[in-house]
Write a structure and sequence with these properties.
Blueprint: H1 5-17, E1 21-23, E2 26-28, H2 34-43, E3 52-57, E4 60-65, E5 68-73, H3 85-94, E6 101-106, E7 109-112, E8 117-120, H4 126-136, E9 145-148, H5 153-156, E10 160-161, E11 164-165, E12 171-175, H6 176-183, H7 188-193, E13 201-204, E14 209-211, E15 214-218, E16 227-233, E17 236-242, H8 265-282, E18 286-288, E19 296-302, E20 305-310
Parallel strand pairs: 8-9, 9-12, 12-13, 17-18
Antiparallel strand pairs: 1-2, 3-4, 4-7, 5-6, 7-8, 10-11, 14-15, 15-16, 16-17, 18-19, 19-20
């Protein structure tokens, strides 16, 4: 049934007049106590969130890990640096998200091939990644390979714990271009978390096979040597895009919008257009490090950019 605007307004008015709107199991009356009720809800601890979500890509078992999630105010100071506030607000409203705050997710990924257990990135700290791994049924010593897509702090933060490697039995893999840049940058997090592991690292270039079915694909710009990874097994595909796009609207949907964290903004935009165009054309799923957890979805072209379609049950079974 289609309601006219006046009919919908009448329905809403009736709900308000009858004492409030039901949100979950809580009725919010439209009176002076509403603000107090909301304040009390804000003081409650956050609901427990699952930290692991698994699915199959052919014979490979892939698990997205929620290693952390934090809110950020004033997202227009991070995304869309080259567009007006009016355009930013309009895009946000069109996608039903607030324009004054963002929620950041940090999603390392495990790919279990049956012969190797490969962890892509390590989150903000060791506590976050080990807690997520535990919920997925893995111990740190189960990890055979750690692949670092790039060396921003929220990707290398879990490499070390109390001065010792978190993944003591793992081999370490990262891009040569990426490592060379940070080795010269005198970055404190690099020096504490990456430099001690350098002798155990294998350095790769674009198109390198980590194991059979997992291949690096350069997507430079976010950092000088930022890598994505193509996963293929039994004819099924997945692309781990890391930080190619840091938000499903303000970065992915608008690939030319400048992002504060992109070190080479023009090159980052070009990488987004190239890789997202490929994903949209081939209709394969992607997993984005900062997408809303479990961070898996699809991409289609829309207008001058793209649209992110979260996965539902396509990868079940």
């Amino acid at each position: 049934m289609t309601y006219s605007l006046s009919r919908r307004a009448a329905l809403w008015g009736g709900a308000l007049a009858s004492g409030g709107l039901l949100v979950g199991n809580t009725a919010f009356a439209q009176n002076k106590n509403t603000d107090k009720t909301m304040d009390k809800m804000a003081e409650r601890p956050q609901l427990h969130m699952a930290k692991a979500r698994g699915f199959k890509i052919g014979a490979f078992h892939v698990t997205a890990l929620l290693a952390g999630s934090v809110p950020r105010p004033e997202p227009h100071k991070i995304f869309g640096l080259n567009v007006s506030n009016e355009e930013f607000v309009a895009a946000s409203q069109a996608n039903f998200i607030p324009s004054d705050r963002a929620q950041f997710f940090f999603t390392p990924t495990v790919v279990d091939t049956g012969k190797a257990v490969i962890l892509f990135d390590t989150g903000l700290n060791a506590a976050g990644i080990t807690a997520a791994l535990s919920q997925a049924g893995y111990r740190p010593d189960d990890i055979t390979h750690v692949v670092i897509t790039h060396m921003h702090g929220d990707h290398i933060g879990g490499l070390m714990q109390d001065g010792a490697p978190t993944f003591a039995k793992a081999a370490y893999i990262t891009g040569q271009v990426e490592f060379d840049h940070w080795a010269k940058a005198s970055n404190k997090r690099f020096e504490s978390n990456v430099r001690p592991l350098a002798e155990k690292m294998m350095f790769i270039k674009d198109g390198a096979d980590i194991v059979s079915g997992i291949t690096s694909m350069a997507a430079f710009g976010h950092t000088p040597g930022h890598m994505t990874y193509h996963i293929e097994s039994e004819g099924q595909h997945l692309l781990l895009i890391a930080d190619l796009a840091n938000h499903y609207v303000w970065s992915l949907a608008y690939p030319d919008w400048e992002v504060k964290f992109d070190m080479d903004k023009e090159r980052a935009a070009a990488s987004r257009r190239k890789v997202l165009g490929m994903v949209a054309s081939d209709r394969i799923p992607l997993l984005g490090y900062h997408m809303p957890f479990p961070a898996v979805g699809y991409v289609e072209t829309k207008d001058q950019g793209f649209r992110y379609v979260p996965a539902s049950y396509q990868l079940m079974g």
